[in-house]
Amino acid sequence: MTATLTPEVKEEHRPEEPPSSRVRLRRLWDRLTPYGFLSPTLVLLIILMVTPIVMVIGYSLMDRVITAPESNFVGFENYMQVLTDPAFANAVGNTIYFAGISVVAHFVLGIAFALMLNSPILGHKTKAIFRTVYILPWLFTIAIVAVLWRMLLSPNGIVNYLVETLGFSAGSVEWLSDPSLALPAVTFINIWSGYPFFMVSLLAGLQGISRDLYEAATIDRAGPIKQFLHVTIPQLKPIIISMALLDFIWTTQQFALIWMTTGGGPIDRTEMVSTYTYKLAFSTYDFSVASAAAVVVLVLSMVLAFFYVRHQKSRD
Fold first, then answer.
1. What transmembrane ranges does the database entry give (predicted)?
2. Nearest-angstrom CA–CA distance, 51 and 262
3. pLDDT level of residue 81 (50, 70, 90 thresholds)
4. Can you tell me whether residue 203 is helix, strand or coil?
5. Share of the chain above pLDDT 90, in %
6. How would DSSP label each residue in 276-298?
């Protein structure tokens, strides 16, 4: 006896018909729609970011670009000239000092002010006043900060007046012209203008820590110092690492503050990698070597950015 398939079974085993052209077009449109929304941003990134980077990399491998009718391919000769230049080594050392001290001081001042503003001892009006005062340096542009502190630190400025009045010095101090004081002076200015970034971020992190953790630590007889070390710092650790990496990247690329206060002087004591590259390009008009220095800075920044992105992914 042979078995016959029922109409229902035949319907189930019937092969599916291929989608019509209208359905395929609709699916293609749905897939391309997100890229259509992203296309303006992608075009701007290619024009304003990718294209200049490619051009600078190309310039760094050539000789006498822009200043000569013809340029020759020299390979990595410009990179060797930059990396063996004592002025570049000096600029790297000053940049590391400038950025390292600034980041540490930003964290110390930021966590101190954030703890004070988060303390229940202060009233709401007092906290509002202190928040306004402490965040003021962050509201000024770099140009205003540079001009302000050049006036304050000038030989006839208020800082020298206070120093002489209090008896710390018998005469005016050349804060921005003395080779031994210029680098600490610009570092102090950068610390003053940048600590509110840490303060605001850490204050937001402190307000997000559960009070239950502190109550549990109090039950375990942990004092304020132990609570700070074993509760506050571990809870703020992801924020601290992220901000430290970002602040270090931004500080190593600081140009306007240095250029408008000391110009990299005196005697290259405040020369940074950014001002070193700028002088190569627009003082000596050696755009090839300046491009090589810019590429070196780009590579170092990408390394720092890699660690930042890696930390963000592990945090997520």
1. 35-62, 96-117, 129-152, 181-204, 287-309
2. 32
3. very high
4. helix
5. 47
6. HHHHHHHTS--HHHHHHHHHHHH
- Count of C-beta atoms within a 10 Å radius of residue 264: 24
Comparing CA positions, the residue from 259, 286, 287, 285 lying closest to residue 273 is: 259
Least confident of 7-16, 203-212, 241-250: 7-16
In SS3 terms, 48-92 reads as HHHHHHHHHHHHHCEECCCCCCCCEECCCHHHHHHHCCHHHHHHH
**pLDDT tens digit string along 1-32?**
444 544 554 455 555 566 677 788 888 888 88
The string of pLDDT tens digits covering residues 190-201 is 999 999 989 999
Residue 208: CB atoms within 10 Å: 10
- The single-letter DSSP state of residue 274 is H
282-287 own/partner pairs: CB under 8 Å, 24+ apart: 285/66, 285/67, 287/59, 287/65, 287/66, 287/67
Report d(CA 43, CA 73) in Å as an integer: 30
- Domains of the chain with CATH codes: 21-60 (no CATH), 78-315 (1.10.3720.10)
24-36: burial string, b at 16+ Cβ within 10 Å, e else: eeeeeeeeeeeee
φ, ψ of residue 177 in degrees (nearest 5): -115, -15
What crossing angle do the helices spanning 287-315 and 233-252 adopt, rounded to 10°? 170
Please state which of the ranges 64-73, 83-92, 231-240, 276-285 shows the lowest mean pLDDT.
64-73
- Give the pLDDT of residue 128: 86
Per-residue 3-state assignment (H helix, E strand, C coil) for 91-154: HHHHHHHHHHHHHHHHHHHHHHHHHHHCCCCCCHHHHHHHHHHHHHHHHCCHHHHHHHHHHHCC
The C-alpha atoms of residue 198 and residue 289 are separated, in whole angstroms, by: 36
